[in-house]
Amino acid sequence: MPAHVFAPPAIPALPVAGSDLLFPVRRVYCIGRNYAAHAVEMGGDPDREPPFFFQKNPDNLDPSGLFPYPPDSEDVHHEVELAVMLGSGGTDIPAGEALDHVWGYAIALDMTRRDRQAEAKKAGRPWEIGKAFERSAPVGPVHPAAGIGHPASGRIAVTVGGVTRQEGDLNQMIWKVPEMIATLSRHFALAAGDVILTGTPAGVGAVVRGDVMEASIDGLGTLRVEVA
Ligand code: MN
Cα separation of 47 and 20, whole Å? Predict the structure, then answer.
């Protein structure tokens, strides 16, 4: 086999709760406007517009507990989300079989340069500058589905400085996790290591340097992230 022209970069990997194993990340898919109240606060109409997908980069996931405030923005928002980690994949996966492909779950924050995203929306341009910047997805440890099952309901929330900013229930998702996997698998070949951020409840808002975000989802504990 030919040698690489330089050492291949390390594969991003996330800690697994209660274990010294790592979950290797292949791709990161994100869903937009998957909670009706958040769709409304972003100017959408959840009765007329279905949720949609975009991507972040695998190495944007960051388990360090630190979020460096990014350059090129004065309006960076938190979006607390349930992350779904796949242990296998495929194409045209039926919704009824989708959960068989889920290896685990984690708490994630889809941090967003809202000013850059708003410009991109207005101009009809892609969202990467607003969404896929360095360390833009703080994430907690991966909890194996073998241990916790498949959460379909439960409180999801984030506080900033101890004040609740976002609060909702996983049962408010417009596309449930199995539908999300089924839909994605019609457009992309899903595989082990793929991560899906499943959308955020209402209450998104800005953070500033020095803020401490505490994101929580029933059954997954709390993710503490300091804005540095
Ligand atoms: Mn989001």
Answer: 44
